């Protein structure tokens, strides 16, 4: 039997959220209401009153389950669950202290559980590329995920932010309408995770964004490269605040265009073009293994609403594309591409639900493939060996596909059943393509 995946309080809360599905609709003030904003309610009006005074509190649990239907490295059936608890607070310092255009935030997270991809889908000797549960990773520990302050100048056309944060909070950010890792959120952390840290990891950083025209803005940031931030030995590692082992800085620059009237019948969209340079030394991924002075990446994020259903501006068809190109000398994943479609409000009776279809691809650097071949030949292996512990699986591209339905029971409860297909898990041709069934559950308390 698998080890317990969630601490008892978290397990009880997730079980409670699932029980909601069997309940009848009630008024907005009742516990099981389909209009209920928070599962635990408005605290007799105190929650709304605190928000009006500048204090907004959040608490949520995300659970992602997955089971292998067919294929993968190990076809023995398994059911694996990953979970994440999030506790946060946002502060409007204009209301609280009279600091105009100034906000602050603090966020704590705790992850737990297991990954089906690691347990069944991939060859355990190969480095991990995709994951069928995007919230798995970066350790089963408590983390300080956010602790920052942001202030605006020049009528908020210039915004300055400093503190502890994830890099995709402000650069290479994207929608997350899926459970599969590469189809969810910013892409850089999936391919250059040694220098680009996404949620739930935070790091010291600062950024400035300048809105120089109504539809255009330019952002630049400076973030530490500090391997201590991704240690997972104990909960104290998740609260590392020192900079003793900083190896350099990652500097992203991003140009964003958010047209208000120009395209697609005035439907909203956003287009971002970015680049980064890291000053930290980076090892060559090829046979030479030489040390480079830094590394770079480029990206394109695009999201557009294509259609609108009647007078409801939120219902309709959306599309997104995310592409990343990495430094071939220093990065094992040369590029990633993601294309996704989702339709919000597919039925009049379910205006807040959505249907999603996404396709995403990892392209492994052929210099890495050549090194793996050379390593195996040096050990006397000239073909795939499923048993040898020192055999290095040869990696190529990995393709991920997901079809899902998001059932928004209420603003407080979301369920997302999904079906995933993984072509060449971890890029290893000898591993059978895999079919995975998944279920995401999110509860806002």
From TrEMBL:
N-terminal signal peptide: 1-28
Keyword Signal in record: yes
UniProt xrefs under Pfam families: OprB
Domain of life: Bacteria
A GO molecular-function descriptor: porin activity
Tagged with keyword Signal: yes
Residues spanning the membrane: none
Keywords assigned: Signal
GO biological process, alphabetically ordered: carbohydrate transport
PROSITE patterns, alphabetized: PROKAR_LIPOPROTEIN
Cross-referenced InterPro entries: Carb-sel_porin_OprB (IPR007049), OprB_Porin (IPR052932), OprB_sf (IPR038673)
Gene Ontology cellular-component terms listed: membrane
Membership in a protein family: Belongs to the OprB family.
Protein name (database record): Carbohydrate porin
Organism annotation: Acinetobacter terrae
Highest classification ranks of the organism: Bacteria, Pseudomonadati, Pseudomonadota, Gammaproteobacteria, Moraxellales
């Amino acid at each position: 039997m698998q080890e317990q995946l969630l601490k008892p309080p978290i397990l009880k809360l997730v079980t409670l959220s699932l029980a909601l599905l069997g309940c009848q609709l009630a008024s907005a003030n009742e516990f099981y209401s389909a209009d209920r904003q928070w599962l635990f309610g408005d605290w007799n009006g105190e929650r709304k009153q605190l928000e009006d005074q500048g204090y907004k509190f959040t608490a949520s649990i995300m659970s992602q389950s997955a089971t292998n239907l067919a294929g993968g490295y190990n076809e023995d059936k398994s059911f694996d669950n990953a979970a994440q608890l999030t506790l946060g607070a946002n502060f409007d310092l204009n209301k609280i202290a009279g600091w105009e255009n100034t906000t602050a935030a603090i966020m704590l997270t705790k992850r737990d559980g297991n990954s089906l991809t690691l347990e069944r889908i991939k060859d355990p000797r190969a480095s991990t590329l995709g994951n069928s549960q995007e919230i798995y990773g970066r350790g089963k520990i408590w983390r300080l995920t956010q602790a920052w302050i942001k202030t605006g100048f020049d009528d908020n056309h210039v915004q300055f932010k400093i503190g502890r944060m994830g890099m995709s909070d402000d650069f290479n950010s994207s929608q997350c309408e899926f459970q599969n890792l590469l189809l969810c959120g910013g892409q850089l952390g999936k391919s250059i995770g040694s220098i680009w840290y996404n949620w739930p990891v935070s790091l010291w950083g600062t950024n400035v964004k300048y809105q120089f025209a109504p539809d255009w803005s330019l952002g630049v940031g400076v973030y530490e490269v500090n391997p201590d931030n991704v240690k997972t030995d104990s909960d104290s590692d998740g609260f590392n605040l020192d900079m003793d082992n900083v190896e350099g800085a990652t500097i992203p620059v991003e140009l964003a265009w958010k047209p208000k009237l120009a395209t697609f019948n005035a439907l909203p969209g956003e287009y971002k073009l970015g680049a980064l340079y890291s000053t930290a030394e980076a090892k060559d991924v090829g046979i030479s293994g030489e040390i480079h002075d830094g590394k770079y990446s480029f990206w394109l994020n695009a999201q557009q609403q294509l259609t609108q259903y009647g007078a409801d501006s939120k219902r309709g068809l959306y599309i997104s594309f995310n592409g990343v190109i990495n430094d071939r000398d220093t990065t094992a994943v040369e590029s990633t591409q993601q294309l996704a479609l989702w339709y919000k409000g597919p039925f009049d009776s379910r205006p807040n639900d959505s249907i999603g279809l996404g396709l995403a691809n990892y392209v492994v650097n052929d210099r890495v493939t050549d090194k793996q071949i050379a390593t195996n030949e040096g050990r006397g292996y000239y073909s795939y060996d499923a048993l040898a512990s020192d055999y290095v699986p040869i990696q190529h591209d990995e393709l991920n596909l997901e079809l899902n339905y998001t059932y928004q029971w209420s603003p407080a409860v979301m369920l997302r059943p999904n079906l995933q297909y993984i072509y060449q898990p971890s890029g290893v041709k000898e591993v059978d393509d895999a079919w995975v069934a998944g279920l995401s559950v999110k509860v806002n308390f």
